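Q: For a teaching session next week I want to show students how multiple molecules come together into a single three-dimensional assembly. I've collected the sequence lines for a complex. Could you give me the predicted structure tokens for the whole thing so I can convert them for display?
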Amino acid sequence: MSAKKKVTVAVTGLNAIDSPGPGVSVIRALKESKFYNPRIIGLSYESLEPGIYMHDLVDKTYQIPYPSAGTESLMKRLDYINKEEKLNAIIPNFDAELYGFMKLEKKLRSKKIKMFLPAFDQFEARQKINLNSFGEKHKLNVPRSKSIGSVDDIEKLHYDFTYPIVVKGKYYDANIAYNAGQTKSYFNKISAKWGLPVIIQQFVNGSEFNVVGLGDGKGNTIAAVPMKKLFITDKGKAWAGITVKDNELLKMTDKFIKSTKWRGGFELELMKTGDGKFYILEINPRIPAWVYLAVGAGQNIPEALLKLALEDKVEPYKSYKVGKLFVRYSYDLIVDLKEFETISAFGEL
Amino acid sequence: MKLKDNVKINDSGFIFNSTTGESFSLNPIGIEIMNLIKNGKPYNEIKKIILEKYQTEESVFEKDFEDFTGILKTFSLIDNN
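A: Of course. Below is the structure for the complete assembly, covering every listed component.
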């Protein structure tokens, strides 16, 4: 057997908390790669992201500036990290940081740092505020939705929607409202936290499913694993889930990838109604935190994504094990003050 | 009556629906009846086997069987016909 290829990969999303970032799962998957022998560089935003202290998974961590600081300061920091580590690839895992990394993709490529991200138009088209036109364009079922910018718009919602409706933040948060009064209350809460517009979506009754997948940017499905959440936290995050097999669900995923020529990892959030119809509720443009279930079921999606980024040969996955479960757990890491001090004061550990 | 293709049952009575991800547990008599359904036995044969083996009234069996298969249908574990 030939030796594994040595690569240095930077990964974000080390916040393995109750609403976890995908970074630690992505790293676990890369560490189990049969093709790569990766040195993992963690990229963190805060000093208490648990992944920073998981030294069996993360070889070195550097803090990076928040997306609000702009791409110039991110580039400056990445230049420093690259000088120290000679990065081969970066896998960004947060929605909010993706735009900045996408803007830097060309520049980073010229420095031999590869990524495999969605194109700008793909990223924009699947935004919650554009979901209606996205569904129409690609002939995919999506619930009717509308962006509103003022409380005054709520009284008119009954012309287009039937209660209950879902009131969603631009990036995060979703609440089910059963009348205009509740809608106003959620509108105020969400707009204060996430800004405007607030998205109103028709509530679709049914069973929720999620799919983690990977598109090669040419319309081909490289990987796709569907999951049903079995246990949900109060933040709506899966704490346990099981792989399922539903041909309609896989067909819809293939259609999504083929029609959009999706480039990179993604998560589809779908609802299956009583008559067996699937609706796409959300498209997350990155790998989800539960991706390690896909690895356990036979599809190492982070490894395949890295192969696409580094232009190594990648074979599409054709099957996965149905009935594999993940059960998440929390774990108390014991950390020396010195380590916390080092990452806080010097921005690296 | 037929067990759906996507539904698996093991000897301990654990049922897994691979399309919905749902799982269920059966009691011993449930396992017995489910295995008869799985093996393609028609209703009259299942009734005969159970009534021969257990001391119960025909009417009680019929009611309980209808309740049981009603639940199986509700959870899409058997075909409706």
